[in-house]
Amino acid sequence: MKNDIPVYDISTFEEYKNAGILVSRFGHYSKQYLHLHSAHRHSFYHLVYFTSGSGTQTIDFQNYPVMPGLIYFMTPGQVHSWSFNTEVEGYIINFSEDYFKSFLYNPLYLENFSFFDEHSGDAVLVLPNEAREKVAALFEEILNEGKEARAFDADLVRILMLNIFIQVSRGLSLKQQSQTNSYNQTLLKSFKKLIETNFIELRFPKQYAELLYITPNHLNALCNDLLGVPAGQLIRDRVILEAKRLLINMELSIAEISEKLAFSDHSYFIKFFKKQVGATPDKFRKQDN
């Protein structure tokens, strides 16, 4: 593994004619960017739909099989790698965080789709047979729009992408769909967003409960009911995820990582990490190398 995990920006990819987006057949993309098979991060949104082939991929240290019909979604900042056993084909779209903001009145529209929430459990899923052909046809339309300049082509690409998101979202369970707009789901989503931006400074549920204008008991009950874990575990999980991401960078010492994560001393960080992961940071780093 390289000493430092690379981070790729959307400007790295210039195959598609419109700024802020890359659309490609996956086989071509995979062979052209072989360095992306190793662990890396994106500063953009990323989705892949596999139509053939096999292997594995790792997203934030979780392994998933590669198989026909599987589609996955990634948000900026996640760590990713592939390992294929056979030739793999499908479609890939990379798009910047701002790609939809000038098009949609609601800049947070993508948050309506649970698969763009890395903590939802919906980011990697196998499409039902009846949806696969429809989704593949939408990818083909997007590829065709990239072949020549035509009026409103950029807007049509955005519409086709939203169509893909909606088709995939409809394939999720009715229970998940019915929960999307509930008060508790909205509150949980707000809690997760607060964790994402404050997990280094704020480590206790009561601090987040105060920001959400609810009691700590309410927050804990909410997390236990919807996720089966207490609120504190979500905070600890996010700290551990960031620790793992930093541990990939072999140039950072354990003490430096501890300081970046605002631990009072690195010995406490080691104890915290071992309790949550079952291995010391150094052992995790050697296993992942």
TrEMBL record:
Gene3D superfamilies the record matches: Homeodomain-like, Jelly Rolls
Alphabetically sorted, this entry's keywords are: DNA-binding, Transcription, Transcription regulation
* Pfam families attached to this UniProt entry: AraC_binding, HTH_18
Q: What is the lineage of its organism?
A: Bacteria, Pseudomonadati, Bacteroidota, Sphingobacteriia, Sphingobacteriales
| Record SMART domains | HTH_ARAC (SM00342)
Domain HTH araC/xylS-type, chain residue ranges per copy = 189-287
Q: Does Oxidoreductase appear among the keywords?
A: no
A molecular function annotated in GO for this UniProt entry is: DNA-binding transcription factor activity
Name this polypeptide is given? AraC-type DNA-binding protein
List the InterPro entries hit by this protein, alphabetically.
Answer: AraC-bd, Homeodomain-like_sf, HTH-like, HTH_AraC, RmlC-like_jellyroll, Tscrpt_reg_AraC-type_HTH
Q: Which SUPFAM superfamilies does the record cross-reference, listed alphabetically?
A: Homeodomain-like, Regulatory protein AraC
Instruction: Output the superkingdom of the source species.
Output: Bacteria
Keyword Cell wall biogenesis/degradation appears in the UniProt entry: no
